[in-house]
Amino acid sequence: MGIRIYKPTSAGRRNASVSDFADLTKGAKPERNLLRKKRKTGGRNNQGKITARHRGGGHKQMYRVVDFRRAKDGVKAIVDSVQYDPNRSARIALLKYADGEKVYVIAPAGLKAGDSVMNGPDAPPTTGNCLPLKNIPLGSSVSCIELRAGRGAVLCRSAGTEATLQAREADWAQLLLPSGEVRRIPSVCRATVGRVGNTEHMKVRLGKAGRARWLGRRPHVRGTAMNPVDHPHGGGEGRTKGGRHPVSPQGKSAKGGGTRQKRKASNSSIVRRRKSRRYGQLKLH
């Protein structure tokens, strides 16, 4: 997978780049039985209030049903194709099991059409196989990690992400996550061996505002450009710098403070917290 840069035939093309999609299987089409309608929310909750700002519009998409549990044990599957998914940064692989069932899974780097994968405790720890953490060798790179056994993968599902299995003790496995956090996870939880594919996703440059709108991203408006009724930074005679420490539209501090609950039950599972960007800047002074 690489990045393609076009000739600067226009202002938008000059700074834009796209994926070359070399990791996709040519001629592959989405599996119709695994497609679902996807309704847009525009960042609004069930009461119609905007809870996630700067979202709306975008191209129509069909949702691909992805199997995050990988609970079909002991049955070999052949990778039918590696496909593009408009709903996520990672690629997805269409697996065809020996009994004829087809499912989508997150495609790890290096997986291609024709490869064989397997799930369960008896699966070998090779790229694309899903098995419990207790059966994976230490030092391995894993992705699509469960936090609770049988609930499905929740960690390291986006393009290029991976975690490192550092240690095992009793019924716990210790993982180094991409954020730098070290966390304990029950060793019976499953993970997929290998790093998630499409590793150069973050190097793609949109190049123009229109491509952001295609993705459903609306413009970000500065608080100082608003009226007082719309934002705490709004209003004033003439242009101002705000006159106060930066806050959200609801008046909460926007200086990067922690939002995690102090008494969250899973706090005991964190061995070492990630270093926040703000903390790192403070250490330099």
TrEMBL record:
Domain Large ribosomal subunit protein uL2 C-terminal: residue ranges: 125-253
Q: Where is this region: Disordered?
A: 36-56, 210-285
Specify residue ranges for compositional bias: Basic residues.
210-221, 260-285
**What biological-process terms (Gene Ontology) are attached?**
cytoplasmic translation
Q: Which GO terms describe its molecular function?
A: rRNA binding; structural constituent of ribosome; transferase activity
Positions of the Large ribosomal subunit protein uL2 RNA-binding domain: 43-119
Keywords linked to the UniProt accession? Ribonucleoprotein, Ribosomal protein, RNA-binding, rRNA-binding
Q: Where is the composition biased (Basic and acidic residues)?
A: 230-240
Q: Among its keywords, does the record have tRNA processing?
A: no
InterPro entries associated with the record: NA-bd_OB-fold, Rib_uL2_dom2, Ribosomal_uL2, Ribosomal_uL2_bac/org-type, Ribosomal_uL2_C, Ribosomal_uL2_CS, Ribosomal_uL2_dom3, Ribosomal_uL2_RNA-bd_dom
Q: What PROSITE patterns does the record tag this protein with?
A: RIBOSOMAL_L2
Q: Which Pfam families match?
A: Ribosomal_L2_C (PF03947), Ribosomal_L2_N (PF00181)
Q: Which GO terms describe its cellular component?
A: large ribosomal subunit
Q: List, alphabetically, the SUPFAM superfamilies matched.
A: Nucleic acid-binding proteins, Translation proteins SH3-like domain
Gene3D superfamilies, per this entry?
2.30.30.30, Nucleic acid-binding proteins, Ribosomal protein L2, domain 3
Q: Which domain of life is it from?
A: Bacteria
The subunit structure is:
Part of the 50S ribosomal subunit. Forms a bridge to the 30S subunit in the 70S ribosome.
Looking up NCBIfam families in the UniProt record yields: rplB_bact
Q: What does this protein do?
A: One of the primary rRNA binding proteins. Required for association of the 30S and 50S subunits to form the 70S ribosome, for tRNA binding and peptide bond formation. It has been suggested to have peptidyltransferase activity; this is somewhat controversial. Makes several contacts with the 16S rRNA in the 70S ribosome.
Q: What is this protein called?
A: Large ribosomal subunit protein uL2
Which species is this record about?
Rubripirellula obstinata
